[in-house]
Design a protein that fits this description.
Blueprint lengths: L1 E8 L11 H16 L3 E7 L6 E5 L4 E5 L8 E9 L3 H8 L4 H4 L1 E6 L4 E2 L7 E9 L9 H17 L3 E6 L7 E6 L2 E6 L7 E10 L3 H8 L9 E8 L2
Antiparallel strand pairs: 1-5, 1-6, 2-5, 2-13, 3-4, 3-13, 6-10, 7-9, 8-12, 8-13, 9-12, 10-11
């Protein structure tokens, strides 16, 4: 089974800024984790939340705004996808992540996952978020209708889609923290978030405008949004 780990912590200046020595050191720690974590099948760091683009649909077209989806103190700074036998195996991977000791990790079982190639600096993470209570149960009629829309998007985007997968409903998620050497597990996603994760795409686009134009075509629920951020590779 696949699990999406969203890595969240307070943004702390140079360590969150690509190009700084502190950021390079952080990326090196994750590279070391990547080389020894056989269960990790995809992942990447993200540019600071100040560079986020949020996309919503208003019935007439895409509404694009600068900034993240909300004002939570701890923001998502990266992600991993694990191919793990079960939740315990995925948690053993999460335990090794630096963010779990300073912030939190949301661990989501995935309905599916597909990916190709290794991340480069023209890749973008498009995290789909929906309001709490509006997640659709996999296998339902609404789910199947939504899958048709996503298949259509995949046909439009073609090889510009470098990865993607849907998530199970929020009741299946686990929020993980490491405090005093002990794992603290909470059922469900992070409690401060009004809009919770619902799926993720990894997109290839040469610049911000092209990435926004592509992500604006991702199917959303009536009150859903896409949180678009460039993937940092070094």
């Amino acid at each position: 089974m696949y699990y999406l780990a969203l890595l969240a912590a307070e943004e702390n200046g140079p360590e969150s800024t690509p190009g700084t020595d502190e950021h390079r050191a952080s990326m090196q720690r994750h590279q070391e984790f990547w080389t020894k974590a056989q269960e990790a099948v995809a992942g990447g760091g993200l540019y600071p939340s100040s560079e986020t683009v949020t996309i919503r649909h208003n019935g007439e077209g895409a509404v694009v705004t600068d900034g993240p989806f909300g004002d939570a103190a701890e923001t998502v700074g990266g992600y991993y996808v694990f191919g793990a036998a079960d939740l315990d195996a995925a948690l053993s991977m999460v335990r090794q992540l630096p963010e779990v000791a300073t912030g939190h990790v949301e661990l989501w079982p995935m309905v599916d996952w597909s990916s190709k190639d290794e991340p480069i600096d023209t890749w973008w993470a498009a995290l789909i978020r929906e309001p709490r209570g509006e997640a659709v149960e996999p296998g339902s009629t609404d789910w199947e209708a939504g899958m048709v829309e996503h298949q259509r998007f995949g046909e439009i985007a073609g090889d510009r889609v470098k990865g993607g997968g849907a998530l199970y409903p929020p009741t299946s998620a686990t929020t993980v923290r490491l405090r005093g050497g002990e794992l603290q597990l909470s059922n469900g996603p992070f409690t401060e978030a009004d809009e919770i994760a619902n799926g993720i795409y990894v997109l290839s686009a040469p610049d911000r405008d092209a990435a926004v134009a592509l992500a604006s075509q991702i199917p959303l629920g009536p009150r859903g949004c896409v949180e678009l951020r460039q993937i940092a590779v070094g």
